[in-house]
Amino acid sequence: MTAPPLAGTAKTEPSAATRGRSAVLAAGLLAALGLLVLVALLSVALGARSVPLSTVLTAFTAPDGSSDHTVIRELRVPRTILGLGVGAALGLAGALMQSLTRNPLADPGLLGINQGAALGATIAIGLLGLTNPAVYVWFAFAGAALASALAYALGSAARSGASPVRLALAGVALGMVFTAVSSAILRMDSQAFDRMRFWLTGSLAAQTSDVIIRLVPFMAVGIALGLLLAKPLNALALGEEAGRALGVAVGRTRVLTAVAVTLLCGAATAGAGPLWFVGLAVPHAVRAVVGPDQRWLLPYAAVLAPVLLLGADIVGRVIATPGEVQVGIMCAVVGAPVFILLARRRRLAAL
Amino acid sequence: MTTPVRVGPYSMRPAPRALVVSLALVAASVALALVAISTGEFTVPVADIVTALFGQGTPVAELIVSQLRAPRVVTGLAVGAAFGLSGAIFQSLTRNPLGSPDFIGFTAGAATGGVLAVVMGGTAVQIAAGSMFGCVISAVLVYALAFRRGVQGYRLVLVGIGVNAVLLAADNYLLTKANINDAANAGAWLNGSLSGRGWDHALPVAIALAVLVPVCCAVSRPLRMMEMGDDAARAVGIRVEPVRAAAIVAGVLLCGVATAAAGPVMFVAMAAPQLARRLTRSPGVTLIASALTGAVLLTAADLAAQRLLAPTQLPVGVLTAAIGGTYLALLLRKDRR
Amino acid sequence: MARLTGSDLTLAYEQRVVASSLNVEIPDESFTVIIGPNACGKSTLLRALARMLRPKTGAVHLDGSVITSLPSKEVARRLGLLPQTSIVPDGITVADLVARGRYPHQRLMRQWSKADEVAVASAMAATDVTSLSERIVDELSGGQRQRVWLAMALAQETPILLLDEPTTYLDISHQIEVLDLCADLHEQGRTMVAVLHDLNQACRYATHLIVMRDGVLVAEGEPAAVMTPDLVEQVFDLRCEIIADPQSGTPLIVPEARRRARTPVAH
């Protein structure tokens, strides 16, 4: 039971309140960016062999070919860039998917897209014997694209369009099939299994800067496209008919969102393996703080997801020195408790 | 409305379609069992199976039937039924197909317990104990975390997905830390497999079913009522809390004992109740038809896993996922209402 | 002593106390309507009377016994409830849903007696859903669906029937339809208890009114005796005039035209 709405009085000065909120949110976004820079610097500096931040700077201003500088330039920086890109891509992709499907459980992992990418890579490595990552990333990318297209086609087969539950079921079903085929391939080739078990866990360490450079354009386009979709997605959040009544081109918005999601998930999974949970947990956490407005939700998710990913990666490197714990494991370990806490604390804010 | 059967003060109202479907499923599982036991690299005529089982056949037929094929088939039937029942119970409680134990962390908990035992080079008994233990712990954990003025279906699914993620990560961590042989064994076990399963695998599941199926039958009607909401169920005189507690305990035990025997065979628990519901066209979740569907699904998948790429033997979990996933996708495609 | 009473009830969700030391008696064979502003505890009281909520102190008595001490099925044969929200199971037909109301009369070996069949048929006839019996409940309109839920509660064949806001989400003609049906059931000898929002409907249909505010029972009795402008102002903070309903002669609340477009109650 809700209290009857109060008439008059309260509605006289909404614009000031809104402006104030916008200012707070903008400041928060700047702070989040600052946090991201800090985490990125830490990611370059910390690891099995930690270097002081001053050395990090001289590695760029005056590289002297020392082993510290080499580690930073050849390993840490590409790894950090990959983490930034993958994190932003997954966070944004998760937020976009949750908004498009109006399904709070939408996540690249749950909808089978990561498993599609993994299958692509497994086929390349296990069946075709490809070992060059710069080649097999393309298979992963194709797998992700195929999976998201299929998930959406199945989920939207009903006359009523893609309902959240159908979409989730379709995604889960596809994910199962992809994983099953991957497992079957790996069963027959134990060498491929040995190589794949690290990639399948999700790791930022596996790629060279050569590969990363190939992935950056996809991520950049996906991020730009995703951020531009905030406004129509806001209108669609009220339901398809309300969105149409507000003048949103529903079909076009759906297709463009699906394209953005495919670009982001494909590139992220190709780069770092089938990470999941980042795309699920971060948008939920962000929504609980900034509310359902996509214009804030999307950029916040894109900035804070790499903070989580890089943070998890750093912790994974530091706690297991001289080895490391893969970032996929750390993400789940860090992200899951936050997610469970949110699920407990409130009825997850409506989308 | 169906025609009721009344004798004196007693009356039954069998749903004819559910009955026919259940009988057909029983027939199908018997047929599958006979095919699985009689065919293969060494053919045992159907007529010889019974004599072999009673120790009257040739030594070779006896070895193959009683020691190799029959236990595997029985394990498959029992594990499939257990997963099907467990899935039906939790889908009914959460009113959500994603609420089945393979998604809310129970199967994953059992898997992690089992993998831990595999990686540490445990025996079959230790692996079974590990997965049973893991299943119970994860179920308690999920319920404790989801409990807040009662357990609400949606929150349970969300918390379960969170716990599931941590457990999968733990599995992967164990795999990367293990040496390649242990990792391969654990990887195979994680797929779910019936290969090499003997009577000592079949027996615990069969006992669990014998004890828990009556419990499930007793809570079946109240559970259906509870799908209308707790208040509506209480209003017609159902004591909601004891029913829910009994159903949860039965579901967790079935899931644990099944995973202990065959590893975390994915998808049977999720797909069997959904398939059964559509086959019987009954509203809500149907427990017995789900159990039978699970048994048929798993046995058929195991048969295919052995024969499809022979001599390569696939783990049955690969097949259940492939078959179940494809079928569910097709159902979604056809299911235009 | 009435069949259904509550004595010294403290009602609370977790730690939030909604009402305390509440004493209430539902007159036998009355059509009792509980009214009050939002969040006054009227649905909570109804839920307690229907044993959905266990009181912190005090007890609800049914036929002289503490209701929670009676077997739940036994209670369900004497007292029915139409909850505010129920979930329609996927793909269930009207006939199947209504039949579920027979649960308290069934046993493992007596699943579908002649009595069950008659009860379901007459419940569906009374609520005028017989022609819908093979339809899927999900596909019905809101008014039809509410009639189906009511049919399920009727099939339970209880002498006492509790209804939690049975007219919510219905348009005016369906509201009247449901209330007329309740009046018919009352005339057939059932004790009816309903939570309603609309004061005029409450006055027209009730034989006994219970008026609540902030968890306190402010007044009770026959509508004509209870409903005064002072009471309405005291309970709803609304100044009004009360005239005789031109159709039924029961009290009709006409809010004072103090401000433009001020309605007596939300919804």
UniProtKB/TrEMBL annotation, chain A:
Name this protein carries in UniProt: Iron complex transport system permease protein
Membrane topology: Multi-pass membrane protein
One of the GO biological process terms: siderophore-iron import into cell
Protein family according to the UniProt entry: Belongs to the binding-protein-dependent transport system permease family. FecCD subfamily.
Keywords: Cell membrane, Membrane, Transmembrane, Transmembrane helix, Transport
GO terms under cellular component: plasma membrane
Molecular functions (GO terms): transmembrane transporter activity
Superkingdom assignment: Bacteria
UniProtKB/TrEMBL annotation, chain B:
Main location: membrane
Record's subcellular location: Cell membrane
Cell membrane recorded as keyword: yes
Pfam families given in the database record: FecCD
The entry's keywords: Cell membrane, Membrane, Transmembrane, Transmembrane helix, Transport
Recorded GO CC terms: plasma membrane
Family: Belongs to the binding-protein-dependent transport system permease family. FecCD subfamily.
Name of the molecule in the record: Iron complex transport system permease protein
Organism in which the protein naturally occurs: Nonomuraea dietziae
UniProtKB/TrEMBL annotation, chain C:
Keyword Ion transport included in the entry's annotation: yes
Keywords in alphabetical order: ATP-binding, Cell membrane, Ion transport, Iron, Iron transport, Membrane, Nucleotide-binding, Transport
Gene Ontology molecular function: any one: ATP hydrolysis activity
InterPro entries noted in UniProt: AAA+_ATPase (IPR003593), ABC_transporter-like_ATP-bd (IPR003439), ABC_transporter-like_CS (IPR017871), P-loop_NTPase (IPR027417), Siderophore_ABC-ATPase (IPR051535)
Subcellular location: Cell membrane
CDD domains in the cross-refs: ABC_Iron-Siderophores_B12_Hemin
Membrane-protein topology: Peripheral membrane protein
GO biological process, one term: iron ion transport
Domain ABC transporter: 4-239
Entry's Gene Ontology cellular component terms: plasma membrane
Highest taxon above the source species: Bacteria
A Pfam family: ABC_tran
Protein name per UniProt: Iron complex transport system ATP-binding protein
Source organism: Nonomuraea dietziae
